[in-house]
Specification:
single chain, alpha+beta, Aminopeptidase, four-stranded antiparallel sheet, about 40% helix, about 25% strand, globular, N-acyltransferase activity
Length: about 200
């Protein structure tokens, strides 16, 4: 109980800003992706060619979606990927097989890069901050829908703590082939008042 209050206080006390990932950030991103706590769930190759393939298009503005560097008091601590599901039809269809996907819905993925910052409520705070940023940056987005492999307990608990509710579960293609296809689908709707 005491730890939960401490985590909640941390989540309320931090201030995040977001900026687009640039090619100059690829070395930092590579270090993060190679951290065991990230590599387990993201399962990305980290060669320069792979980083260019997976992140170059958004860094250059030639691919849909956003790769956002999460800054805590100006210091990079994580990455958030944000995209409209309509821009990725196959992924949208995976969601739609399990739950209603409203027109204009957005999805996110996220990581905290520094292993020393994991397990302290930072992920929950970062998710909450990107939700608020999404309502401002995408005023026509009615909801944020997120799929998490069921085995990634820390990730889906962070979503729940950030106000998401589980709306479905079922098979989706896992990022890491060692994982079972079972995913939990979470959703957070835009507040009726338009304020976060």
């Amino acid at each position: 109980m005491r730890r939960r209050r401490l985590v909640h206080r941390l989540a309320a006390a931090v201030t995040f800003t977001f900026r687009p990932l640039t090619r100059a950030d690829f070395a930092l991103l590579r270090r993060w992706l190679e951290q065991p706590h990230v590599a387990r769930w993201w399962n990305h190759e980290t060669t320069p060619e792979a980083l260019d393939r997976d992140f170059g298009g958004t860094a250059d503005g030639t691919s849909p979606g956003e790769d956002l560097l999460a800054l805590l008091d100006g210091v990079p601590v994580g990455l958030v990927q944000r995209s409209r599901l309509a821009d990725f039809a196959e992924y949208r269809d995976e969601f739609a097989a399990l739950t209603d996907v409203p027109d204009g819905a957005v999805t996110i993925d996220y990581l905290v890069g520094d292993p020393g910052r994991v397990g302290r409520g930072l992920g929950t705070a970062m998710i909450g901050a990107v939700v608020a940023d999404t309502w401002r940056a995408h005023p026509d987005a009615p909801a944020i829908v997120v799929a998490v492999v069921a085995a990634n307990t820390a990730s889906w608990r962070a979503l729940e703590k950030a106000g998401f509710r589980r709306v479905a579960e079922g098979a989706m293609e896992p990022d890491n082939p060692v994982d079972d296809p079972l995913h939990y689908v979470y959703r957070r709707d835009r507040p009726v008042t338009g304020n976060e």
